[in-house]
Each structure stands twice: as structure tokens, then as C-alpha cells.
Amino acid sequence: MKKSEAEKRIKELRELINYHNKQYYVYDNPVISDAEYDKLMRELEELERKFPELVTPDSPTQRVGGEPLPYFTQVVHRVPMMSLSNAFDEGELRDFHRRVTEVVGNDVEYVVELKIDGLAVSITYENGIYKTAATRGDGEVGEDVTQNVKTIKSVPLKLDFPPDKSPAILEVRGEVYLPKEDFRKLNEEREEQGLPLFANPRNAAAGSLRQLDPKVTAKRPLAVFIYGLGYAEGIEFETHYEALQFFKRIGLRVNPHIVLFDKFDDVVDYCLSWNEKRHELPYEIDGMVIKVNSLEQQRLLGSTAKSPRWAIAYKFPAEQKTTVIKDIIVRV
Ligand code: NAD
Question: How many other CB atoms sit within 10 Å of the CB of residue 279?
């Protein structure tokens, strides 16, 4: 492709992706499937790779997708809440491992987690007491959802610190989601009431959490899985896995399918084993997340403007199925 043609297509793709980002992140109302969205993003990434001089800082490839809704109080994250880069097959997973070992050597462990399909929140505890919660927003600035997250039963309001480890500040990150069965019931009720339906559990969860009236959130059976550390004062961890074990111990809800591996072949097998098994879960996952375990190695690897280099999302192959929800058509 000639540079002038690439320039034209890049402009088109950016406009399209920005439009879909707005529908998805701001209005919680996507109009295309995630697989279709990922294809557009891939095309843009490839063109920008071929023509690096056409990359601009405001390209959707360089920024975290969402933006905070203006009617929420805005919260500046102490540590940015980033996106994840994607691997769509085994080859791309192995490319990730190669990039990691080039920086940190071959002695590397990985933690593999389910990629819960909900929305990210950061929750801050001060001296073990629930203080604030925020959405990811554009990664730097999120929405204050303190009162809404407080209504989620799996979010403890007080942490159970052991006497020797009681951080003054602990900011954890996790995914708020709506279980599949509750999503089905919610849409059934909305249909009876003549209200617009949610396209999928992820959008129902986001729409339920980003409410100005926390009483509406309280009526929706949202749940949370905590998957990472944001920021802490008064405690240090050497590995991601150790932090997750600590979170479990102090009463935070951590997903039970998280596994630590020291061989990348086992990482790959575990990821692929969930291609089918995921349908048995009571909540939706859209992939697996692979994270370098050592926090020192994570620091060495660092991040791009949009996502850490020490983690990757393995996305499941898209299933060829078309669902029609009233006037919303979602191909999954
Ligand atoms: P992402 O969803 O691919 O990955 C980052 C997010 O993963 C985190 O913010 C967190 O919320 C989540 N996550 C779940 N489990 C996790 C775990 N165990 N550890 C860490 N993170 C975990 O990235 P993104 O930038 O939020 O969104 C991009 C994706 O959103 C696209 O690939 C597409 O699937 C979807 N999308 C769809 C549309 C559409 O129109 N259909 C539009 C925009 C985005």
C-alpha cells in the first residue's frame, strides 16, 4: 500500500474506532462485536507499524479507550490504569514470551488469570477501611464510584489485616461483573418494562455501576474479582502471586482459577484449555491474562503509553454466531 493510501485508511480507521470507543466506554452501548472491533484495531496497528511516521499521540492505538463521564466527580489515579495488548493465537503468545525473555532472561515465572469481562475498578482502603473507588476512565482520570462500589456485596468494607502486615494505604484493582444468569434476568425484566436491553453482561455491569444514584446499582447483583495491586504504603511484595495470596487472606475476593507457571508451554496449554471450558463458568470471560510474576522483572520491562510490557491478554477465537437483541445486533 502506498503512503497516501495508508494515510487515508488510517484516518478512516481512527474515526471508526473513536466512534466505537464512545459507544462502548461512554454509553455502554456497543454497536459491533468485540471481534469486529479487534479487527479494526489490528488493521490500524499494522498500518501504523508499516508507516511509523504516521503514528500520532492521539491515535486510539496509543491511548486507553474510555473517557470519564462529565457528571461524575473525576479521580486522578495514583498509578495509571492501563489497557492490555492482545495475543490472538499461540504464535502471538510465544512472541510475547520471547519479548519478555529478551529483557529479563529465561528465568521467568508467569501468573495466568481469567480475563473477566466486566469493567475495571480501583478500590482504596485506608488503614483497612474502605475509602474510595474509581473506574478506569481514560487510564489517567477515572470516575468516582465510591458509593456505587460500596453496594457490591463481595467488596469488604473492612480488611482483615494480620498484626504484622497492615498497610496504611492499599489500592487494589479488580473487575466488576454481572453473572450470566443475573444478566439474563435483568434483560427479561427490562423487556417486560419496555426498557432498552443491554447488549451483553459487560455492558450491563458498566451501565449498572456508572449510575448517579447508588440505589440503582444496589439493585443489580454485581460482583467483583480483585486481580492486582495498584498502590500501597506500608507493605511490599516481591511477586504478583504473593500479593494475590495476601489479598485472599485479608478478605478480598480473588478468582480461584489463577495459576502460577514456570514453563511457558504450560502457560500456553492452560490458556488454550479455557477456549471451551469457559462456557461452564457462571460469568463471562473474554480471554486469559498472562502476567510476569516478579515485580522487579515487571519494572525492568516497563510499559508503552497504553499497556504494560509484562502482561498480555490472550483473546479466545471469535465464535460465529449472530444474536439479535431488539434493534441491537451483536455478532459474537
Ligand atoms: P482489554 O479489555 O482488552 O484489557 C484490559 C482490561 O482487562 C482491564 O482494564 C481490566 O478491566 C480487564 N481485566 C479482566 N480481567 C483481568 C485480569 N485478570 N487482570 C487484568 N485485567 C483484567 O482492554 P481495553 O482497552 O479495556 O478494551 C479493549 C477491548 O474492549 C477490545 O479488545 C474489545 O474487546 C473491547 N471493545 C469493544 C468495543 C466494541 O465496540 N465492541 C469497543 C471498544 C472496546
Answer: 11
Atom of ligand 1 nearest to the CA of 86: 3
CA distances from 72 to 146, 259, 286 (A): 11, 37, 28
What are the per-10-residue average pLDDT scores of the chain (332 residues)? 94 96 89 93 96 95 89 96 96 98 98 97 98 97 97 98 94 98 96 94 95 94 98 97 98 98 98 96 97 98 96 87 43 31
Which residue, judged by its Cα, is nearest atom 15 of ligand 1? 115
Phi, psi of 252 (to 5 degrees): -85, 150
| Distance in angstroms (rounded) separating the CA atoms of residues 148 and 216 | 9
Best mutation site among 26, 175, 260, 271 for ligand 1, i.e. most ligand atoms within 8 A of its Cβ? 175
Asked if 115 is an active-site residue, the reply is: yes
* CB-neighbour burial class of residue 81 (10 A; exposed 0-12, middle 13-18, buried 19+): buried
Q: Is the pTM of this model over 0.80?
A: yes
Interhelix angle 180-192/201-209, rounded to 10 degrees, is 70
Query: Which residue ranges make up each domain of the chain?
Result: 1-62, 63-331
Which CATH number is 1-62 given? 1.10.287.610
**Residue 35 CA, closest ligand 1 atom number:** 34
From 43, 85, 115, mutation site for ligand 1 pocket: most ligand atoms within 8 A of C-beta: 115
Q: What pLDDT is recorded for position 320?
A: 52
**CB atoms < 10 A from the CB of 219, how many?**
12
- Asked if residue 308 has its Cβ within 6 Å of ligand 1, the reply is no
Nearest CA to ligand 1 atom 5: 83
> Ligand 1 centre from 83 Cα, in Å?
7
Parallel, antiparallel, or unpaired for β 119-126 and 259-261?
unpaired
User: Is the distance from the beta carbon of residue 115 to the nearest atom of ligand 1 less than 6 Å?
Assistant: yes
In the CATH hierarchy, which top-level class contains the domain 63-331? alpha beta
